[in-house]
Write a structure and sequence with these properties.
32% helix; 6-stranded mixed sheet; 107 residues; RidA_CS
């Protein structure tokens, strides 16, 4: 699996998790977003060029509000990408959140 794919000026990241960040959805979300920031930078772009995000939560009822608070601190007010957030079974029991972001390369 690739962590990043670039095609025709669009950067696709794989879903990022942070099972090593403990059992706190806020910490896991911050860790996921830090990984995404690093991947986007490696690809030559940033969250300023984000187009779309998909967020999977292990327990949307319990964790949406806290995850969303971290997301709102991370996302830029002038560039809010489209986003879908759903509840899903995770690959490991310790994973509370997984995030995937698609961004454009700067022109």
């Amino acid at each position: 699996m690739s962590k990043v794919v670039i095609h025709r000026g669009v950067v696709y990241t794989s879903g990022q998790t942070a099972a090593d960040a403990g059992d706190c959805v806020e910490k896991q979300t911050k860790s996921c977003l830090a990984k995404i920031d690093a991947l986007l930078a490696e690809a030559g772009t940033s969250k300023s060029n984000a187009l779309n995000a998909t967020i999977w939560l292990k327990d949307i009822e319990a964790d949406f509000k806290r995850m969303n608070g971290v997301w709102n601190e991370w996302v830029e007010a002038d560039n809010k990408p489209t986003r879908a957030t759903v509840q899903a079974a995770m690959a490991r029991p310790s994973i509370l959140v997984e995030i995937q972001v698609t961004a454009a390369l700067p022109e």
